[in-house]
Amino acid sequence: MATLTRMLGDIGLAEEAVQDAFAAAVQKWGEAPPPNPGGWIVTTARNRAIDRLRRESSREARHAQALLLHQPAEPKEVGPVRDDQLRMMFTCCHPALSPLAQTALTLRLLGGLEVAEIARAYLVPEPTVHQRIVRAKKKIRDAGIPYRVPGAAELPDRLQPVLTVLYLVFNEGYASTAGELLRTDLCQEAIRLARALADLMPDEPEVIGLLALLLLVESRRPARVGPSGELVVLAEQDRSLWDRALIAEGHELVRRCLRRNQPGP
Amino acid sequence: MKRYLLAVQFDESHPETEEELRAQLARTHKVNLEMEAAGSWVFAGGLMPSYASTVVRPANGTTTMTDGPFAETKEQLAGFWVIQCEDADQALAWARKGALACGRPIEVRPFNELPAE
């Protein structure tokens, strides 16, 4: 989704194209998916988007199509974020969007959460979340909020909402509100994005601190659930199941932060 | 290029001193020049206070006229810029400069650039 949004320049168009591509995948892949399924989806979605734009007759759509066709297959990366998902995250967390919209949009587009899950995590009605997401996408498109990595000078200001969102994604995985007790995929995704962010901004103590927190909490995951899927409280956990490597990494990051002697944002 | 309206709000119940007003005008003029140099400036203007405002409304093929602005709110439109920018970030950066120069809140609104069907 994030890659296609960069290519197509519009979240709505990217969403439709991705849906088209997955529908095609269901028909064509059968038993044997192609060697690079992600790449196949992106290429197919891009082609479907071009088809879609061709069918549209408006001048704007034709401009978009021309741009897309003349774009090199792999547009050159700009700015310090190489990861499309992080670029998308900074767009979703743009300060011109309301805090709820920022988080809801990021959880939906990057965390892959359903609207119902986001609504439960925020204790707000489902239609409210749905409406916020729709409105935020329209504002991004119509107000011209760019899919761009903020420049070095803006980065610190733009960071806080991104950290909040990563924390919430992890939290939803740590104690899931829907279905199973834990959603490991969400925790992994939050950690993956936090790591990428820490690579990008190694001098931001808040980023390092968040990553350390996520790693240390994640290290106990194997011991948190018993054989029949029940939650095991901290005092009764089998500590030999804790992930030593994650603990060591988390401790090292905390020490790095402590050396700066600058607690709190 | 997209066009944006920067609408300057003003609480008319708290007018500035003559001196402060002059300083604001000087700072705002500088921002205008900066916008022009950057190729972002399209138009700008300051407005008389709302006592000078009249609203004309359509009604059954004719019109009625009333004294005063649309809304009986404290915040009134005090002036505006029309600028052209690459994206919202650029427009918001000008709005920051404008707000600091004129000391008043600014609403940033993109123009509806959709082609007429």
Automatic annotation (TrEMBL), chain B:
<dbReference type="Pfam" id="PF03795">
    <property type="entry name" value="YCII"/>
</dbReference>
<dbReference type="InterPro" id="IPR005545">
    <property type="entry name" value="YCII"/>
</dbReference>
<feature type="domain" description="YCII-related">
    <location>
        <begin position="6"/>
        <end position="97"/>
    </location>
</feature>
<dbReference type="InterPro" id="IPR011008">
    <property type="entry name" value="Dimeric_a/b-barrel"/>
</dbReference>
<protein>
    <submittedName>
        <fullName>YciI family protein</fullName>
    </submittedName>
</protein>
<comment type="similarity">
    <text>Belongs to the YciI family.</text>
</comment>
